[in-house]
Amino acid sequence: MKSEQLREKFLAYFGSHGHARVASSPLIPADDPTLLFANAGMNQFKNLFLGLEKRDYVRACSSQKCVRAGGKHNDLENVGYTARHHTFFEMLGNFSFGDYFKKEAIEMAWRFLTEELGLDKSRLYVTVFRDDDEASDLWQSVVGVPVERIFRFGEKDNFWAMGDTGPCGPCSEIFYDFGPNVPGPSDPFEGIESGSDRFMEIWNLVFMQYDRQPDGTLVPLPKPSVDTGMGLERVCAVAQGVYSNYDSDLFQDLLQPIAQHLSADLQNKEQQPGLRVIADHLRAMSFLIADGVVPSNEGRGYVLRRIMRRAMRFGKQLGQEGPFLHELCGLVVEKMGGIYPELVAEAPQIRTLVKVEEQQFDTTLNKGLPILVKYLEKLAADGAKEVPGQIVFFMYGTHGFPLDLMADVARDYGMTLDHKGFERQLAEDGRQSAQEGQFNAKIELPALRELSESMQTEMHCYDGLEAEGQIALLLADEKPVAQLSQGQSGMLVLDRTAFYAESGGQIGDKGVIVTETGRFQVEHTTKAVDKLVVHHGVVESGEISQNQKASSQVDRELRRLTMKNHTATHLLHQALKDCLGRHVRQAGSLVDPEKLRFDFSHFQPLDTQQLAEIEQAVNRQILENIPLQVDHLPIQKAREAGAVALFGEKYGDVVRVVSIADYSKELCGGTHVAATGEIGLFKIISERALASGIRRIIAVTGTGALQRFQESESLLREVQDRFHLKRETLTEQLQKAQEDRKALEQKVEDLKMALAKGGSSQEQQETVNGIQVIVKCVDGVEGGALRQLADELLNKVPGGVVLLGSALGDKAQLVAKVQAKGLHAGELVKVMAEVVGGSGGGRPDMAMAGGKEPQHLPAALRKGLDLIKSSTT
Q: What is the reported pTM?
């Protein structure tokens, strides 16, 4: 039975038993910051199990895409070397939300395995929680499993909990015996307990029947639920009569063409792990990219990058010199695109991103190494022993230079990396990113959660700027209060509000809330538990009380400016796709009254011409004054109409679609202008790298854009007047001035080098125990040129030694170049550096150092010469 048939058979079987067939959620969890990636079938149903959400079904089944390659569940290093570990896998699951319980779950699972798949009952074993007599009895009475094939285990193996408190319960697992041909204990209890390969878990049934209290007490849930999970890769192996998951069609349909493409032998035991790694990682990278993840140096993007580069490394071990993975991504699309249409839709994006990452990985050393070496030479000349964390972070974040490789290169210069400083920079960057991304934050205080169970705020932010409502809750210091008085800060929830709450990249409204007795200044607005709008602020005058009638009044000008920037963001998104390519995808945004910020996937800086083209495209739509249209559609119909959904956003069954004629169509809950002409003008003020593969544009609109144009014009006029330049030939004149300056600088360097090469009283050449040595002190020659001079002088004494010193103001620099056997340049430099008040070291053949006492350079060089003499006697 092929995997496609097995997957469909599972979904059809449970569909025939009243389960709603629910599509897999994206790998990026929506509204769950605790998860890096979806890693279980129940992830998308978490709020149903917690009672926070209701849907039109009480039982469901799915085939969920999962990734385990980072964080707590990290299988990456085992992949390729075991029969079971994968970075990407599919989890088949059936779920009951307060509907059926143990009896039905056990019966359906057993009948599916033994009747639908035809598995041999004599190869199946069952485990239950040690105290779960009910489950043990049901396995025997309902489906006839003999008691000797049912084993009891403790809480570690057979009890599941969502957290330290909350829903939890016993679980029951079904194991398959591969037989004596697979190594491991023959005794089933011992084999299962020890985790041997012979006995493999194929299905886990979790019975959520308790609510664990803070004191550890287990209180029975009023409506127990069921959560089950069965790995498709595992059950395919069993159904197809093979031991290793990699021998099932899920992988063989990839492995065979991969081996052929790489001219590798699938039966070669040494090549097998590498081929399996590539097949597994191709699946993971294809699905991750299809779900909106792009390679970067942080978070999900970093996990993707690690997966991709691991596959590349194994490809190189198999003899691949250049990029090859992008040529194989189509295999995953062909194999799995039928059940996961996003693979087909994103196939060009997958291929493009993988190819670019491969090219970047191949060129990282070529591009980043010279920059790193320049830093290291300067640091060595200054006597540093450690590469500052700021430089490490710059090389890591901007150039994608791997830390381990950076450490290897630094070691050649006698330096280590400042890991603590790097971590501080990384943490600071993370805090900044978190602050920049707070617009999506939702607060979930106990009082707010309790209120959300009985009501939700009616949002009238699209109807106008004022709404009449009633105060449903007041909070001070995050605790409910009956009243807030003048000068007191707090939070306020209305049953109806005109305020827009932060979400989808748009900041919340500001304004006032007025009652008969007081006035509350709203400083910002957020969402809570997806149902409530929370107004944060301070009582400006009087007092406000619980249950009072209240008028919400939004700041008109701030809302107007924000709407301009939000609509301009939609125009910018489409312009980027048109100008740069279809690979462009939104990676984040912020819309406020002052500006718009847009993060997107792209692989290189935008040049002046591209930025101008994008600005022109946006302003063209503004000048046409196109009316915006807002529709509410079923999500599937909206997607079929071409509406762009943002990855990582959570959408309901009915979505709000904002259209700008045929130019732009996006799922969006934000506020917008009525027609594009209201934006007035659009101007990009900056474009930079945010992370590898992610760019950030900041732009302004309306009067802000006009002001930017005026400032640019004023600056240009000032430059023209001060330097007597003509606008028509400004670029050519500046370029000529730059070239003239470079030519003069080169002449100065040439003169310095000529003086340095010439013989002087400060140069000596002698033979020490058969080794020719040149010792020379020069002035004003910097690190790179000093090393070049050492290379040229060493050509005069092949197999010899060159020791150079240079005074640069109040600093001293030293270089040692060694070809003679038995001498170490790093040791020579270390000794000399001590004399000039510095430190340094390096490789056996070349080393540099620096110090703060250039007046002692002659003595330092003599010290180096003395060490040569003593080391060669």
A: 0.64
